[in-house]
Amino acid sequence: MENSAIIVRVANPDDIHYAVTITDEMESSAKARGTGIAKRSPEYIEQKMKEGKSVIAVTETGTWVGFCYIETWSHGEYVANSGLIVSPEFRKSGVAKRIKEKIFELSRKLYPTAKIFGLTTGLAVMKINSDLGYEPVTYSELTQDEAFWAGCKSCVNYDILMSKDRKNCFCTAMLYDPKDHYKPEETAADFKQHSKGYERLLRLKKSRFLKAFRKITGTESKPEGGGGGGTAKKRFFSFFHF
């Protein structure tokens, strides 16, 4: 399917028939990766569509392609672009980037003063975020709203998150602060320069977390994987605290 035949737009009430397909794909994708996005019901997705707080991608013939939605925390001070999902048939088509660009644009329109953040385990999503002006940050710079962190309970790595006192986990936190940020071309260039380092550090992070968690729970075994401004303006390696 050609990328030009895929329509990326703000979702509306006419799209609610896609809700079950979207939540089913979210669940199966999280299981395949061994990580979790906060589990959402079809009714929750339907509500986001009705409120105009989500973006959907479909083909010209109406086949569902992808989805992402907006959540607000700490009385609107923080906005999360959550639940990014693309149908397996359309992955590596460039549509994920188009969805992220659209949901970012919508977030800036609806909440112009809010800090926009996200959590990801994927290098590809980190690159897309960097192209938009996001920076990797420590978890302390995210919302401390208990409702947000409660959403992590459906992730298979929740116990690891709690063992780290919610200060770190497999996911990388990224933030866009409209009051204090680098230009997108700067964050994109910095990510390109350090992408190999990120890849190694993400593997190391996973290896160390698993090893530490097994020691705590008494299930330690052979380590797997492994491998060798202003307040928001940090260097990119500052968020790796083990």
TrEMBL record:
What is the top-level taxon of the source organism?
Bacteria
Please state every residue range assigned to the domain named N-acetyltransferase.
6-167
CDD domains with a match to the protein in the record = NAT_SF
Q: Which InterPro entries match?
A: Acyl_CoA_acyltransferase, GNAT_dom
* Taxonomic lineage of the native organism: Bacteria, Pseudomonadati, Bacteroidota, Chitinophagia, Chitinophagales
Q: What is this protein called?
A: GNAT family N-acetyltransferase
Checking Pfam families in the record gives: Acetyltransf_1
